[in-house]
Amino acid sequence: MTDDQLSQKARREPLIPIGQPARNRRELWRRKALWIGVWLVFLSSPVHDLVSGDHTTGGTVAGWLGLAVFVAGYLSLLFRDMGATPYPSKLIGALIGSMAVLATVLSLTLGSAWFGLYCYVSVACGMVLPLRVAFWTIPATGATLLLVGLRTDEEEALNLLLLVLLIGFAMTGVSQLVRTTIELRQARATVAQLAANEERLRLARDLHDLLGHSLSLITLKSELAGRMLPDHPDKAAQQVADIEQVSRQALVDVREAVTGYRRPRLASELAGAQVALTAAGITVAIPAEPDLDGVPEDSESALAWALREAITNVVRHSGADRCTVDLVRRQTLDGPVLELSVEDDGAGGSGKGPGNGLTGLTERLEKAGGTLETGGGKRGFRLTARVPAGPVPDVGSRS
Predict the structure, then answer these.
(1) Which of 27, 83, 284, 320 is most solvent-facing, going by the fewest CB within 10 Å?
(2) How much is the pLDDT for 36?
(3) How far apart are CA 341 and CA 377, in angstroms?
(4) DSSP for 31-82?
(5) Which residues of 130-155 are buried (b: 16+ CB within 10 A; e: fewer)?
């Protein structure tokens, strides 16, 4: 990178990026130093008083020593409070109390030029103390300033009182803003983590539904091809061609599911169910082209997933000879619903509770505002899925 590019980059990037977390420890310390260093302007008056030569040698030495201890306590308190491991509450109280005592002793012994130290005490109270404590310690700091002013310079104390109060209460607002910003960043990180978890669950459901159905069909057709191969090579070749077509479609479906664009259509799933059940030697009754006028896409997609999962279970687990698929519209108090039922005459489930497929299917239907019912039918096992088929009517309106 050339010198011109470096200079352009430096002009584009501010010294302290506003609203962004520190990228490294060096930048964090730079931010702290800039924020805390601004307030050191109030030290100009005590420093000028010490270098003016108005005090004895002992007084000057004591003043420099007291000022150094005061500033060290102030910087230590704020640097630690703005970090990840602040001081314990008792130590914070001891440091602020020590600062107040030093400010009082130095102001009483060296004069009103040291009244500015009370600004630091007020800032410390507003920044590091809880609100309920800061709301009485800041006025207490101002009251101490007035009492000291009565002994030294009452007019100067009155002039500084408003600043001490305002700066302290302003720091309570800044402190709450900093804490709120930290909480918002943590909440945003939590939301991102939850979104990632939800996306993983979605992908897991999609892959289970897609691959479970397709692999079951491939297995069935492979078994058929193996049985037909010795005596009927032409029919076996047709089964192999079907296997190739199913595997290619499964690959496309998986890619679409991974990219988040997979929206299965009920009509295509009905056609696929016909092929899968026929290949498994199961007699099937499936409705003709469904009437989906006004049905939301989410509802259609949820029913398509329900049909796919139901047919996969019939083919793989039921041992059924016959399967019936019904799709009807019903009018309920909650509005029109589209009801899909899949019933077989097989042995039913294993009795060990719902598997991953039915659990994921229940979650899909709930997201679309639907419900899932499973259990024994007239002859075997029955799965019923219901989803909203249109807008919910306003039952309280009158014409």
Answers:
(1) 83
(2) 64
(3) 10
(4) HHHHHHHGGGGGGHHHHHHHHTT-S-HHHHHHHHHHHHHHHHHHHHHHHHHT
(5) eeeebeebbbebbebbeebbeebbee
